[in-house]
Write a structure and sequence with these properties.
The protein has 3 domains: 61 residues; 108 residues, no CATH class; 142 residues, no CATH class. It has 3 helices and 25 strands.
Length: 313
């Protein structure tokens, strides 16, 4: 339509200047100029649209993300966002320090407190679905030395509830030829570090429990690395006997002072299984003193009960 109006003006100009349709050469020139003007106009419009697209893309690229979920400051606008993380801090900070992390899901939100890490220390984010239609966000934060905290939010039915967190270690398990794996919510491979008999690394398989937190699929985590080379008891102990599958047999035995122990399995909370000199596997129960940072066995610290315990990391 713009081109037709432009040609009408050309014809009017021809009448006033004495130019006739018989002057084909001049008419072709005018028509060519009209085509050039039309093409230039179209090019300008295209460049303007492209600039807008680039600007919009740049704005999206500038946004921070935890996994595929946007992370914005509480000072920033959440217009157009339904599911996002929010922190208290400077909107222009490229690596904000986050002490509290809020997940907003529509009109619902909840906060994980006392996180205390910078944005760059957040690692992976996992969107988890269970067979009974529950939905969770797992978000990982690095603490250092391969130690991590995984924060869990329940977003089932458009909810937003902080379910808790759990610690783990992001290490490689040579015997499995695998690192940690959260791809299957019914069979997550998670590693951790145990300390009651010196530093030990273990792995276990988990499913998502009713509260959103991992629950073990086995009779205990398998210990695959032991830092201590010669763990020896300093006193005799009566201990439960365990079978090859990690089940209590119902029998007990008295283990003499000077016996060596090799850790093999643990529930990471109250007991650790160890193989002794004759190949029998026994169970040692313990508690952790959070005030003194000590493992307690039969009322004594683990360092009093055993010699040769080594701690690393």
């Amino acid at each position: 339509m713009k081109f037709k109006r432009f040609m009408v003006l050309i014809c009017a100009s021809m009448l006033f200047t004495g130019c006739t349709w018989s002057n084909r050469e001049h008419l072709d020139e005018l028509k060519e100029k009209a085509e050039e003007t039309k093409a230039k106009k179209a090019q300008e419009e295209t460049e303007e649209t492209t600039t807008e697209d680039i600007t919009e893309t740049a704005e999206n690229e500038d946004m921070l993300y935890l996994g595929d979920i946007p992370l914005i400051s509480s000072e920033d606008s959440a217009d157009g966002l339904d599911l996002y993380f929010q922190y208290d801090g400077d909107v222009d900070d490229e690596n904000p320090f986050i002490d509290n992390l809020t997940l907003v899901n529509g009109s619902n939100k909840d906060t994980a407190t006392d996180i205390y890490c910078s944005y760059s220390e957040f690692d992976e984010s996992y969107h988890m679905f269970t067979d009974d239609d529950r939905e969770y966000i797992y978000i990982d934060a690095e603490l250092g030395n391969d130690y991590y905290n995984m924060y869990v939010f329940d977003i089932t039915d458009d909810n937003a509830k902080f379910a808790g967190f759990f610690g783990h270690t992001n290490v490689y398990v040579e015997e499995l030829d695998s690192g940690e794996d959260f791809s299957d919510p019914d069979n997550m491979l998670i590693c951790n570090t145990e300390g009651v008999l010196g530093t030990c690394q273990c792995y276990d398989y988990y499913h998502i429990g009713e509260d959103g937190m991992p629950e073990s699929n086995t009779n205990g985590a398998t210990i695959f690395h032991v830092s201590s080379n010669n763990i020896t008891s300093n006193e005799s102990m009566e201990l439960d006997i365990v079978d090859d599958e990690g089940n209590l047999t119902g029998d007990k035995m008295t283990v003499a002072s000077g016996t060596t122990f090799v850790p093999v399995r643990t529930d990471q909370e109250t007991w650790i299984d160890a193989e002794i000199d004759d190949g029998t596997v026994v169970r040692i129960y313990y508690e952790y003193d959070y005030d003194e940072y000590e493992y307690i066995i039969n009322g004594k610290t683990s360092d009093e009960i055993f010699s040769g315990l080594e701690y690393v990391g």
